[in-house]
Sequence to fold (922 residues):
Amino acid sequence: VTDADLHTPDRLPSEPDARLVADLRAALSDDAVITMPGSLLVYESDGLTAYRARPLMVLLPADTAETAAAVKLLADAKIPFVARGAGTGLSGGALALNGAAVISTARMNRILDLDPGNRMARVQPGVVNLELTAAAAPHGLYYAPDPSSQTVCTIGGNVAENAGGPHCLKYGTTTNHIVALTVVLPDGSVAELGPRDGTGLDLVGLFVGSEGTFGIATEIDVRLLQVPAAVETLLALFDDVDDASRTVSALIGAGMLPAALEMVDREAIAAVEASVYAAGLPTDVAGALVIEFDGSRAAVRSDADRAVEICTRGGAREVRRATDEDDRQRLWHARKKAFGAMGRIAPDVLIQDAVVPRSKLPETLRRVYEIADRHGLRLCNMFHAGDGNLHPTIVFDRRDPDAVHRVELASAEMMRACVDVGGTITGEHGVGLDKREYMAMIFSEAEMAAMCDIRRAFDPQAMANPAKILPVRVCREWVGPATRRDPVHPASAPP
Amino acid sequence: MSQGLLSALRSTAGDAAVRERIEGADWAVAGVRPLAVVTPGSAAALADVLALCARERVPVEAAGGGSWLNRGAVPARPPVVVSTAALTRITEYEPADLVIGVQAGVSLAAIQRTLGDHGQTLPLDPPSAADGTIGATVSLGAAGPLRAAHGTPRDLILGVELATGDGRLLRFGGRVVKNVAGYDGVRLVTGSRGCLGIVTGVFMLVRGAPEADVTVLISVAGHQAAASLALAVWQSVPCDAVELAAGEADWTLAVRLRGSGAGVGEARERLEGICGAGVDAAPGIWGTLGAAEAAASMHLTLSAPPTRLASLLAAAAAFAAELEGPGDGFRIAAHGTAGIVRIWRDELVPAPAAEAFPDALRRLDADVASFGGTRRYDVMPEPLRQRITDGTLPARGDAAAAVIAERLRRTFDPAGIMMAGRGGVWE
Fold:
């Protein structure tokens, strides 16, 4: 975050107006309005802990009507709001800037309807991703988008971020699975968006991924998928990281469509093998691919056979094939537990997020290592290789200001490297607060102005999660006194 | 047309790109002769033409090859047709990325040919003329039977370039398969029917061409049995398309199985376990069916949750039977997994049936609404259209969503020239 105005240290949110608090308590319930500073602490940041901002208060509505009532009262008082799910976001999107109130979806955690025949469910936004899949499982169904945080993150947060995950390669991201939304707009009115909204425009598609800047989705119609009849999981080990990333291109270029195609490098494997999740991998390999196929028995078997052949031809030292579910979980540990394991290595971990065309993976990965080397940073990679979605992960110590500076420089250079080969600045974590200034790398001023206009169509008064996604200078309603007292804690060192 | 506007169009798009005297039905917009047909040679020139029309407050009809100009309302003022027909370059194709970038005037057939040379395919088969363009497909959000496995354009488009109604050239999305940077303009534009501007370029996901591609036809007696069978197949056979078509007496269930040889073999065994042996058809049948549907003179679409398929089919059959003798002119087909039923006619609706049409449609609407479905029309010839827009359609939609949609329209097309008076997405 480079805007000087975001770092003005003089103002923290004042006490909320007593009358407003009373009105909110009347509209919700006494315990649904949190104003005690100590209780607000946990809402100061999301998964990107470097940024902190204390909300004015936190509201916990239980349904659409309560959310609408709360938003209306806030709008009348001209207090902006930020919707918050589990707070696992990685882009600072759930930070309450400008003395905003947080509206938590924690109490909206019910599955309202499960319709197995039509493979549909209607849920409240606070439902946890994996709990939806658990509820659908007895019917042979599941909810496909599977972000790494799926044991805690919520469907509402997934909608806001258009969340992805390893299995997006075959099944697409959140937006491909959302059918309709009930949303509370920033003025407190309620809209039913979907095929029946009568506008002929895909307002659902536009809302998904809007990072809380269009309002709050309070009821969500999702599509469920049939649990595949069979799954085959492979782990291919490579002595050369280039061979591994070239094999990703070879698999994709051959027209194969694995359910997941993930990559981990030497550092990540070493971290996992040193942890309780050790999968018995040789730590001298330079990189490994986790490749998973799902579908009918015959189809996955022939796909896996073909993938083994492509990996071997691509220089794999060894290709392991999971023999049962336990074995499969073990192979996945190398990928899924890597991020947690990195936490053991250094006090701070910064996970970046960018996407490149898949054929550019080998050269981009080389650039990323080179950039980290040049800045003397320790880096590992574990990422959605099949999507070209890189997650360069840098370990460092935030108490070392020079290291923090080098992390900043390296991050920007990595983004530039990805954009230069036709990529984008975020594939699944969102822009939020963290990447606003990178938007100009990929969009023209005219395009960013058009996006500001799109936001204004939903939120003319700039009440919903202001000052996120777009550089502040782009949206005129953000350039003014309200934004200048944007209270990001001065004490927090950005990564 | 004023000589001033004509010379301005010529100096903006080039002399050769502007045709003024349009003879006969070619390029007629719902029967109205356009002021001119402009086919700019670049996206930038096309945007400049829109900027000019916005300044002059001249209505604009977005077009590709011109196949869909007969759809929609009769425009109150003759428009300028702005066509992407000259934007025919494949801008980027790296087979190893499974992504292709094309200008909007490239035909679906040309895209499939290019991909086919590299063992790849675009899993999108909307009802379309042979020269149907990708720009029109994206603008209409049109999809065909393959939607059962691969979704609609919103699931396949990665990036769009849009010339807005006031002449800005904007790019949304990009050429990578995952992208959450900024608002999802790709989905806003996809299916917006030219009402925000004209799509000039597209990046799309493609897939490896299937090793095996088998189509099996099964004959079923009665709509109830046909619907049950379609749902049973959806439940237990991995397939790319499950279509139902009403025949003279029986229904035909057409199932398309694509994938590896082994996978298709296994799927076929399961299919036969459910339906018995069917008759094989060549994959070309799908294109033939799509082209026939695209040529419809009247076309309605009914939607409901997939499990209401039998109710939808019954409603469609009752509607057709009410207007004419059974099997006489009206065609009925369904996407068996999506709860989508289409009713269309090749020939114009004859006069006696036209008289009864508004009442029959009202009954169809009530019928479909009774089980939570919706109905829209895609093609409605005059004067049928005048009859049914005369206050006989029930009010639909969401008031707050309508306000947002109107604001979005103004954002992209402040002069209100795009598809003006054509009904478009706003009906």
